[in-house]
Amino acid sequence: MTPTALDIVTARRFGPLTAVVVATLGLSGCNGCSEDKPYTPFGVASDSSASGGASSAPSASDSAAAPKRFASRASETAPKGAKKWQLAGVEISAPAGTQFERGLAADFDLDSKLDRVAWVTPVKRELGSVPALWYFPSGGKAKLLTKLPSYVPAGTDCKYRTALIQTGKQTVTLDVTADCRSKYVERSPARSVVVLAPAAGRTVAELRVALPAAGERIDVDVSSDDRDGDGRDDVLAGITVTAGGVGARADIGYYDRPAGLSRDNTLPRASFARVANAALASARAKSSAAKVPAKVEALRRLWTSLCRESQSARVFDETGVALSCVAGDALQRATVAEVRSLAKAADVLGAHGARSRANWFGAPLSAANKQALAKELGRLVTERSVTKTVVKGSPVQGAGTPRYSPLAFETDGALLLQEPRAILRIGKQGDATDVSDEIERWDLTITDDGGQRWTGIGFPCNKPYVTLGIDTQTGAHADAIETKLLAPRPASCETHGGIVPRLTPLRWSAAGLDVLVDGYRTLTERGTLDGGPAPLGSALSQDGKRLAIRFEDGLLVLGGAKPELWRPLPSNASECVVSAIGDRAACVVGTGAALFAPKS
SS3 for 159-218, per residue? Predict the structure, then answer.
């Protein structure tokens, strides 16, 4: 379909790639590194478990609708060390000092005669000798099309995976990835995807791609059909990010015009919208709702790696600038789908947590969506109006790091309050008795048996997951604990996103550090209450059978016959605890404390 003026944003003209001289060079033919298979452009995986086609591609319902494409043709592999090569019945000769690795024949200039393109590599590792793509026109002299771009790492420890494919009548796509033993600078390009018009001797479009984040895979596939019927091949690049076998795809489109390359501004926005809308549809049915959180996570990973707005992109244009996606509405709808799917599964804590983290990915919920989700979540709980009793006492104030609450219920239901110099037992009417001689002060720091201490959380810029900061007994930094909760974006790579999550410690046992990060439980995602003992000051009751966690609309109390939402609570209520029988809760309120009990 021919685009309208409103569909196109004119971008900078793509200039031809220039020759590159690499100071430190370690190149070989590396035929074993190339992709000898029917054209499915390879992705780059961050570990061996994600490579080799092990991860499944997203379904059609999760992806932008694929337009009718030119039937791509993979290149042929040259005989090892070949300096002359019979390609499609015609012998071609490699430039001096090089050998053929792969090539293909096609009528690129549309004169009804076969032309040839070939990727050549240096015979010897010499300064200034780099792999290159050459064009062998029918009846004409060979011409250099492009050399290995300077931004692709080069060194003695690097090998290259190369795919050369005819992706349009007049165009080929050259896809080169550097595999080096030495570490890359995070999010720096290690891969070049270039679409070239051999007969015209020019580059049509180019993408730079960094290696994926840990545990993820980035696939790029290219079609260079003439999409608008003007006789010039255009470019459609599909970017798929996959983790754990679940992926999401978005398309980037360009139109090749005499005045320059024009980006299709309906993409990738339309791709994100389709994934989000498919997730919303799946969330309505119990049979499909269980798969929605993973699909939403895949969409967020895609946005994180592809889009400038995430501030952690790994895909860039020909100048190294990240691409704008304008996907905010889709991300918001994806959050709505996630919350609804968890509600459909009766995962009350998970649904409340997903709603609480709605602003983690660049698109806070609108007032209308907040209201709609509050109504849906209201069906999962019994709402209880509470009475508030101000407590006589001044709990120990925090120092900015996570801690257990200075409030704790004893097994018989009495409330203890830890002051700086005393322990008080609080009666049901809020009166206080000093029991410092009877009750030992409990440690508010969250520590394990070896004295390690939880100090806070991290939102890594170049890694996908939230981390838990740990200090040793001596105060030195220990290795952070990585959770399975995606870190909020925009990331802290350029500026900090300003997300301040509510941290709720439960316990640190042999099973690990068990905490809630805006409702996400680090050890058991579904927030099951296993009845294990919990320390004084935990949001779990001492017997581990009840849990109280503060959310924006009230105190969620789990462990009874049905989940309960206690309200109203003061806006500054925090560090809440609950009794073992669930008849009372207590929270720090400002510099004081208060008891809350449901009305009968």
Answer: EEEEEEEEEECCEEEEEEEEEECCCCCCCCEEEEEEEEECCCCEEEEEEEEECCCCCCEE
